[in-house]
Amino acid sequence: MTTTERIWMTLQAHTRLKTELAALRSRPNIEIHDDSIGYDDTVVANYAARQARIRQLEDLLTHAVVGEDPPDDGVAEPGMVLTIRYDDTGEVETFLLGVRGAEDADIEVYSMQSPLGSAIDGARIGEQRTYSIPSGKELPVTLLKAAPYGMDTPNSSGRQSVPPRRNLDHWPLEQRPAAGTKR
């Protein structure tokens, strides 16, 4: 996931990721030679996964923008709590545009790499965008509200921390996301 793009995250997420990185680095290293003969497959897989996570965390932390809230200008961008309407169903959803897996928020978090996150990036209030679902169908969404995360957290606005249920009837059964996954 190497990137040169600046990545917005909260101070809490930055601290948590630094702690996780320190914990991963503090574990004793095992030396795995290129041939990997004589090693348990699980040990090799765990080692590779740990090294990949260390690289991912280093990349995230290197490019992190911490303590800089985006401007309250109504434009969808990382660090903003966005309220959108799915124009095909009329359903409304509120989520944080941020780093999946980094933010420990009481609100759904969609990344910029998600189809919805990348489609809505840069939209202004009232603007309609479309994004692709796994079946290839294009779905229209309209940005209703955009406010910096610090100014519009779920606890300060009285919203419930449980996101609304999304009607997945238009998704082919075999492509419907599992519970708890993101679009």
UniProtKB/TrEMBL annotation:
Gene3D superfamilies: Transcription elongation factor, GreA/GreB, C-terminal domain. Keywords: Elongation factor, Protein biosynthesis. One of its GO terms (molecular function) is translation elongation factor activity. InterPro entries: GreA/GreB_C_sf (IPR036953), Tscrpt_elong_fac_GreA/B_C (IPR001437), Tscrpt_elong_fac_GreA/B_fam (IPR023459). Pfam families: GreA_GreB (PF01272). Coiled coil: none annotated. Residues 149-183 are annotated as: Disordered. Residues 73-145 form the Transcription elongation factor GreA/GreB C-terminal domain. The keyword Protein biosynthesis applies. This is GreA/GreB family elongation factor. It comes from Mycolicibacterium komossense.
